[in-house]
Amino acid sequence: MSGVGTAGGGRDAGDSRRVDRRRIDLHTHSSVSDGTDSPSELMDKAVDAGLAVIALTDHDSFDGLAEAAAAAKRSGITLLPGMEMSTHLHGASVHLLAYGMDTEDPALNAELQRIRVGREDRVGPVLERLSGLGMQISREQVEAQAGDASSIGRPHIADALVEAGLVGDRTEAFDRWLHDGGPAHVERYTTELPAAIDLVHAAGGKAVIAHPWSRSSREVLPPEVLAALVAEHRLDGLEVDHHDHDLQTRRELRALTEELQIIATGSSDYHGAGKLDHELGCFTTDPAMYERLLS
Ligand code: AMP
Ligand code: FE
Ligand code: FE
Ligand code: ZN
Fold this sequence. Notes:
It is a single chain. With about 300 residues, this protein is α/β, with parallel strands linked by helices. It folds into two domains: about 10-115 and about 190-295, Alpha-Beta Barrel (TIM Barrel); about 125-180, DNA polymerase, domain 1 (Orthogonal Bundle). Helix content is about 40%, strand content about 15%. It has helices spanning about 40-50, 65-75, 105-130, 140-145, 155-165, 170-180, 195-200, 225-235, 245-260, 285-295; strands at about 25, 55, 80-90, 90-100, 190, 205-210, 235-240, 265. Strands 1, 2, 3, 4, 5, 6, 7 and 8 form an eight-stranded mixed beta sheet that branches. Helix 1 (about 40-50) packs parallel to helix 2. The longest helix has 27 residues, at about 105-130. The chain starts with about 25 loop residues before the first strand and ends with a helix. The protein binds adenosine monophosphate, fe (iii) ion (2 copies) and zinc ion (ZN). It comes from Naumannella halotolerans.
């Protein structure tokens, strides 16, 4: 893997925008999961946003990484291969970012396949709930929104509701119907967090908990639980700088990473048109932390 020193350049030659070669965004989604840009489009936009390094971290899938790698090579940006894995701890959802793993690892791929099947199996029951609430949309309408995504998710159901004129946007669909515990929410299979960390490590990757204190997850992942995950499972880091964390939360999380001597990352969690307030590079990762992630 090339280091930060070799990143950047390419299309930016002659651009009036100053390219900060150290801008590193380690959490983004393409249309392989619930983002709206293809992996190639995403790499082009990352260059335009002045990023030197980008990680593609689609939900529960590596399927966008080959296309992203080819596009990144053309445009001179450094791609860190990643993935955001659906896990749970004590019944609550936790997202785990994996970086630099062997994407052919059989055990990890088998587990991701199981998660993706759970995603497919959940669509029908969610549509039944929605129907019971007076909102009729078909599986075909959801599949039309998902396109050839490997990882079908609630955002695609939200998009189908928007397309049918039943809600104004994804946010309204989540706020009214699809949020965790909401009227049309249905659980799906996810991996236990400690087992997921172990699987990522066995595949040679680093494991970083995504937006650990977003929404209600602070209660699920208090400092003592995070400390135990570091001590017992060698958790590598926490995503500190993220749209879902306010300034105070980011300060507390950063202090915790220092205390636990683990990596602190920052990223956009870009989803293209799917999440308008998450533009590429809105949060970035310190180059020294990125180097630790590569080591
Ligand atoms: P799923 O992968 O099907 O469990 O759906 C979770 C995904 O939905 C997350 O990765 C986000 O991209 C998106 N999401 C979750 N909550 C919201 C929300 N309140 N508004 C918009 N998108 C959301
Ligand atoms: Fe998402
Ligand atoms: Fe997430
Ligand atoms: Zn994400």
